[in-house]
Design goal:
mainly alpha, elongated
Length: 226
Amino acid sequence: MMEINSWFAFLSCKSRKWGIVLLALAAIGASMLFSFFMIWNESRQGITWHDPVLASFRPINLSLPIGILTNGGILIALIRMFARPATAVYFFYAALCIIIFRTLTLYFVPLNPPITIIPLSDPLLETTFYGGNVLLKDLFFSGHTANLLLVGLLSNERILKISLHCIAALVGLFLIMQHVHYSADVVAAPFFAVLAYKCAVLLGNRTLLSHLPDDQKRKGKIFMNS
């Protein structure tokens, strides 16, 4: 189990050391390119969908709790995940996968924001990824919901995993209540989160973690706790 639990042992192999560095750089680079894509996506004309769910109630501004729950939950998950090299490897692959999926869905499913939207203000994302802009067309599928579900799937700790999934459900509900997303955007998020998780496990096991015995690798099972 040393290879999973110890960064020192994991990095003792030069190929693994450079492999995870390149993987991390690829994830960071993809995130930067994705931010440019999302800013460009704001200028595209999309489809306005009449969502009967949103039409049934007035929007409520929940930007503050959405930001606290999302950023706080992901930060705690990352701190715990990066304590183990294997989980870090899975995370970097998962980040790449979710970025690819979101790029494709945003490109091929262009949507205008709900007419009754209360724009979601997130100073952290606006400063780091959105060029100081508040994005309105970052719609299908919900990144907030998918990212929280994904880090929950990647977590090794049962309590943290359950907590992150509950937070994801709550954030998804809040996004709909604020009319930031169509209901379909939130409903679709779990499918892409699970797909990204399974792809990350497959890629991690076949590359940087291929040296591990089979019983020390993840199998891509959704409710795996160790």
